[in-house]
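User: Hi! I'm working on a homework problem where we have to compare a predicted structure to a textbook description. Could you give me the structure for the chain below?
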Amino acid sequence: MSKTATKEENPLINIIINVLLPTIILSKLSKEGEALYQLGPKWAMIVALALPLVYGIWHWIKHRKLNIFSTVGMGAILLTGLITIYLWSNDSAKPHVAWIFGIKEAIQPLILGSLFLITRRSTSPLFRTFIYNDAIFDIKRIEKSVAENNLISQYEGLIWKCTLYFFGSFCLSAVLNLGLAHYFLNDLAPDLPNWKEEYNGIVGSITIWGFAAIGGPMMVVAGYILYMMINGLEKLTGLDKESLLLPR
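Assistant: Happy to help. Predicted structure tokens:
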């Protein structure tokens, strides 16, 4: 992997800008007051949404490369803004807000997971980008052994099975996100004082817990998939683990 690619995909920066900073802004800066950091619920929401949106646009302008995960994230940010506008359009209670927000939260992992299936036959399958790639596996040696033993269909079947498992982790994340949104927003009462501050804090909580809901199952399933791939490839190719994996 080149230095440029590594810089583009820096996960720490993505987490800070897309999750941590918006959460801090929504939870800590939403109060009304005279202090400079007391932005109020409206401006705190604007800043929290604008931060990852501006970062995503800057990333695209600088690298001129569409990042699928950033694009889906930016779509989720815009949906959050639209839901907030709907909720804040007047101070009357809005029915089914928890479900509307929950569906929005569930859509993001479902889209991401579906992309693993959609790109399966493309020149750059996402499964090969994130799990089965030449930074971990000695793919040239593996595919040479598969071809020599005429096991291409079994090899492709193993990859497809693991792709489905990874898609399943995103489906689980979607269900968890739906449940989280319903849990946090179900008791929101717009007729109470400072309910917009409360709403911002809830959105911040959903953001941080939603990240865990996506990342947690994905990491667990990714570990299991690596185990499946190594065991499956050992049986198909006759190569041992040290031969399948590139030296670290």
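For your comparison, note the following. The longest helix spans residues 195-237. The chain has one domain: 3-244. Good luck with the assignment!
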